[in-house]
Amino acid sequence: MNLADMLTYADIGQLSSIANHYQCDAKRNSKHELIQSILSKLGGREFLEEQIGSLSLSDLRFLNHLVFDARSGYSLEELTAAIRQAAEVNSDNPQGKSAGGQTESPREAVARYRRSGWLFNGFTHSTKYMFQVPSDLKLRFREVMRERLLEPLQRLPGDPEAYRDEQGLIVDDLLLMLKYIGGHDIELNLEGFMYRRNQQQLMGMLHIDEPLIAKGAWRFGYGRSCIAYPDRLALLYDYAYARQWVRENGSRLVLTDSGASLLDEGNQVSVMQIFRFWLRLYKGAIPNITSLVYWISQCTRDWVSAASLYESLGWLVRPFYYDSPQSILEQRLIRMLMHLGLLRIGESAAHGTAYKMTALGLKAAEACIHINDSKELK
User: Fold this and answer.
1) Segments in the chain forming alpha helices (H)
2) Other residues' Cβ atoms within 10 Å of the Cβ of residue 267
3) Which residues on adjacent β-strands are paired with residue 186?
4) Going by C-beta distance under 8 Å and a sequence separation of 6 or more, which residues neighbour residue 365?
5) CA torsion 98→102→105→108, rounded to 10°?
6) Distance in angstroms (rounded) separating the CA atoms of residues 226 and 238
7) pLDDT tens track of the chain, all 378 residues?
């Protein structure tokens, strides 16, 4: 539902509150005048840019969460939790204070967003205690945010001297991993993972080699097997396990009948299937992963320097235990997007490390904002 529709259903009390917030010139007892004055005020792009430009980083993080969330409505508890989460990494306003310098509670923030016309209560008996965001405001916020995020980027004048592109390799390596498991007697250690010698043998068969995990390294939050396997291998293993192509049979790792059938019949595995699985796998550690992937794609349509991309997006990344925002952006997002074949990583003598999304990556990022967590792996 768009802003005009929500204003029509809103009571005159909220309309007056929004009109007062934006200092609209309209009779407070005329619903029609109130609606027209609010639409006139919020309809201008320059005015919306000015409003968004005056928001704190925590406000922007919260609104970014709302516009990329596929749900149609939110409870008050869900909104207040999202507001707290947006403020946790807020370096510009660590005390959770409003623009006037007063400490603002999450519930007070919700009331402020209602006065701003960003949140409306539902209009049916079943949704009256839920909150909704106008669809057209979501799209316009995304457009204004895109322009803001593009400003700090340092674009390369041409291609870097060398770049790494792994398009198509992750699917090939998934099948090679299944062949290896099917053709070897693989013993699992007490923790239920392959011994290092098997990992090294397997890695030697794959197109992309990764260093083994150092003993005692901090590893959790990025999938079932990330504690023992390198990031790319862990993703391949977790995906194969989730699809029931492999099974941990006591102290042995075996290929299942469905895994063998996949190899025998030559069934195709889509990169998009693995990409969707990766989004769900990493979402616990990176709650706003879909919006970050989308913004990475928008910022890297051309070659841009790594430093300028972090300057543009770093404030949107929430730290996860010992993972800093920069390491999350570079290792958990950028590098994994490259492994998925959705992004290229280049090296330039003049600009250092640089990134550029592939054509498939641009399509995948556009599609990911419509992916619902409840969708099947298939």
Assistant:
1) 3-9, 12-21, 31-43, 45-53, 57-67, 76-88, 106-115, 135-150, 169-183, 196-205, 231-242, 257-265, 271-282, 289-299, 306-313, 325-327, 335-339, 359-368
2) 10
3) 253
4) 293, 294, 296, 297, 298, 342, 357
5) -70
6) 9
7) 899 999 999 999 999 999 999 999 888 889 999 999 999 988 888 888 898 899 999 999 999 999 998 888 999 999 999 999 898 654 444 334 444 455 789 999 999 999 999 999 888 888 888 999 999 999 999 999 999 999 999 999 999 999 999 999 999 999 999 999 999 999 999 999 999 999 999 999 999 999 999 887 778 899 999 999 999 999 999 999 999 999 999 899 999 999 999 999 877 899 999 999 999 999 999 999 999 999 999 999 999 999 999 999 999 999 999 899 999 999 999 999 999 999 999 999 999 999 999 999 999 999 988 765 444 444
**For residue 125, what are its two tokens?**
């008996």
